[in-house]
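Usage

Read records sequentially. Each one opens with the input sequence:
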Amino acid sequence: KWQEQRGNISLAMLEVLTQGDIYSGFTFVLGFSLVFRTSQSYLRYWTAATSVFEMGCEWSDSCASILAFSTISKFPHHDVLVFRHTMVRLFSLLHGMALEELANGEADWEFPLLDIEGMCKERLMVLTSGLAQGRKVQVVLSWIKAYITQMMDCGLLNVPPPILTRVFQELAAGLVSYHQAQAIVIWPFPFPYTQLNLILIQVYTIITPLVI
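and closes with the structure output:
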């Protein structure tokens, strides 16, 4: 008002915005926009959190199943032990790669892995190469499936195939949950809607003192 009295600005153009009905309508639009924005952000947060936990549950249960199936193997104990240790390390690597991909390099901590030095050096080189960037989960998952198939073929895993199929189903279910969480990471909240909220808030901040 002081600036208007000095002739520096004119508030006449704002009279339309400061009318009661128009201001109330504008406030309603702003409130609706913010509530919708908050609800969608809340939904995205819990969808991502739930998907990550479901991913871990599916893969841990798959690993537990494959270890349980190996207890009835007729192979020497040493061979079965090597298989079980390898499977646990592969599943640990799978979960670690999934968390790393979801963090998108922005995490302030390192995800723990179970005895990563016990893995084949050639495989680790594949994961660190540029070709595996963004596809580390799929690469490790293919290793797990191939290793299980090889152990079935050689007879170390002698459970009926229909029962063993559950392991692959849980692997696939975990991958689906991973992609659901990854979709939220890749696709942020729509930029135009975010900018609309910012503009509405700025306009509200400017005209509210004039109305009051």
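Summary fields computed downstream for this record:
- The chain has a mean pLDDT of 83.
- Residues 100 and 110 are 8 Å apart (CA to CA).
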